[in-house]
Design brief:
Layout (H helix, E strand, L loop, with lengths): L1 H52 E9 L4 E8 L7 E6 L10 E4 L16 E3 L1 E6 L5 E4 L2 E4 H8 L6 E6 L16 E6 L6 E10 L2 E11 L2
Antiparallel strand pairs: 1-2, 2-10, 3-9, 3-11, 4-5, 4-10, 6-9, 7-8, 11-12
């Protein structure tokens, strides 16, 4: 009887132990699912916020110099910079071809006539397009698959940071002003696609596209 009772007790303990292990495993699983869901919600909110907060307008295109001038603006008036990638129909231009105009450094009123008032953009990504993501057909897709489907340029991609000029001024009112960017394009460019990018958890996501016909 003693042995039987001891055996039953051990069996109960084993079942309790198994239940605890399964319970902890399930709790860990559901915590992971909830965490993943929360991350997806935060990512979606971030993408929507950036998509609605960055505006791009064309100022002019200098045919002789193959220079495209753009106005960029953050609706929220924040000091955050801009991330863009520029497809010229045959390649993505390097960040050394993209400049931002700093009016407070301009001493003669002529845009980008010296290295002082126009500063080169900063490369924050250069590499394969499958490392960049875009919302597409109700889910997230790698940008390589999207570009193949849309007939866009396939190749090494460069994403450039254009600094917000208000980050260098104590005058907060300047944050509501437009940012002027200068893009030096290849001479045979017929269309320029300006992709607006945001970063989330150090990964780049496309949130907008402005297509400019140059012929």
């Amino acid at each position: 009887m003693y042995v039987k009772g001891q055996s039953e007790l051990l069996t109960v303990i084993m079942y309790i132990g198994l239940a605890l292990v399964v319970g902890v495993t399930m709790l860990s699983y559901f915590s992971s699912v909830i965490s993943s869901y929360n991350d997806q919600v935060l990512l979606s909110n971030h993408i929507q916020y950036e998509a609605s907060n960055v505006i791009v307008n064309v100022i002019s295109y200098d045919v002789g110099a193959s220079t495209l001038w753009l106005l960029l603006k953050r609706v929220d008036g924040s000091r955050n910079g801009f991330f863009i990638a520029v497809d010229t129909g045959s390649q993505y231009i390097s960040c050394s071809k993209i400049y931002v105009y700093y009016p407070h450094l301009d001493d003669d009123g002529i845009l980008c006539n010296s290295n002082n008032d126009c500063v080169e953009s900063i490369t924050i990504f250069s590499g394969s397009m499958d490392k960049v993501y875009i919302p597409w057909e109700g889910s997230l897709s790698d940008f390589l698959s999207y570009s193949k489907a849309m007939g866009y340029t396939i190749g090494n991609m460069h994403i450039c940071r254009i600094e917000n000029i208000c980050a260098y001024s104590d005058n907060t009112g300047i944050c509501n002003e437009n940012i002027i960017a200068k893009l030096n394009l290849p001479g045979d460019t017929k269309v320029a696609r300006i992709f607006i990018v945001t970063l989330y958890s150090n990964k780049p996501y496309i949130v907008g596209l402005y297509e400019v016909l140059l012929e």
